[in-house]
Design goal:
The protein has helices spanning about 1-20, 25-40, 50-70, 85-95, 115-120, 135-155, 165-175, 215-230, and strands spanning about 155-160, 195-200, 205, 230-235, 245. The two termini are about 30 Å apart. The protein has eight helices and five strands, in the order ααααααβαββαββ. Strand 2 and strand 3 form a beta hairpin. Helix 1 packs across helix 2 (about 25-40), helix 1 (about 1-20) packs antiparallel against helix 3 and helix 6 packs across helix 8 (about 215-230). About 50% of the residues lie in helices and about 10% in strands.
Length: about 250
């Protein structure tokens, strides 16, 4: 149906364009229309054909869109947008974030980030920046709320692996290959303090690898909670980054 309207309007446009490019044909068409109309309504033969043509050009596309959209039925092909669900989600997020300001957990000892297990999964992690104050304050509150929900709802203790990341460090990581990151300097939300890489604590030790079933289940829950709070979870990317969350607050 839509293709038919597009084709018809295209043909009509071609006819109008031809009449502008070839004056002789235009005069012939106008004379024929004028003569036909003059036989019925004498005196207005020069004006009315152009009024009719202009009306058709204006009304035809609008009528086609109206019909394709379902006319008075409110639309055939677009499902009705239910803003109630959006409002409920916003209220729930606001409820989670309201109240006292959450405080970052105590920093882990440096040796927690230098074990052989950690180095295999996250090279260069020992030099990562884990200072909460280097990140956006509102983003920090969302991440801390994720930590709080993960602990209270699912029993997982979480730790920050890396927050703010300098452009120089971003380039160093990108140079290691796409298996680490495919984002160069200023292409990551880390440079704006709006991204964080996180993992789990079990018996006082970091558990990062998703090959651990317990950790993999935690990452799935972590992604759900993060998205519930309006964050983007890296576990849905083509190059999956299960511990990564970012806040795209400037995007509509």
């Amino acid at each position: 149906m839509l293709a038919g309207w597009v084709l018809g309007y295209f043909v009509l446009g071609c006819l109008v364009l031809a009449s502008l490019v070839f004056p002789s044909e235009r005069r012939a068409v106008v004379a024929w229309v004028g003569a036909s109309f003059k036989r019925r309504h004498r005196g207005r033969a020069r004006v009315v054909p152009w009024l009719v043509l202009g009306s058709v050009l204006l009304v035809l596309p609008a009528a086609g869109v109206w019909w394709w959209g379902g006319g008075l039925q409110g639309g055939r092909h677009l499902e009705a947008f239910d803003d109630a669900a959006l409002d409920d989600g916003n209220r729930h997020v606001a409820h989670l974030l309201q109240g006292e300001q959450l405080v970052p957990p105590p920093a882990l000892p440096p040796e927690a980030f230098t074990t052989a297990e950690v180095e295999v999964v996250r090279p260069m992690l020992s030099t990562a920046n884990r200072r909460w104050e280097r990140m956006d304050e509102a983003f920090v509150q969302r991440v801390l709320m994720v930590f709080k929900v993960m602990k209270e709802r699912h029993g997982y203790d979480m730790a920050l692996l890396e927050g703010y990341r300098s452009p120089e460090r971003q380039n160093l990581l990108a140079a290691q290959g796409a298996h680490v990151t495919n984002a160069g300097a200023w292409q990551s939300y880390h440079q704006h303090g709006l991204a964080a890489d996180c993992a789990f604590l079990r018996e006082g030790k970091l558990v990062i690898s998703e090959k651990d079933p317990w950790a993999m289940r935690g990452y799935q829950l972590y992604g759900e909670v993060a998205e519930e709070l309006g964050l983007t979870w890296g576990g849905r990317w083509r190059l999956m980054d299960f511990g990564h969350v970012e806040w795209r607050r400037n995007r509509k």
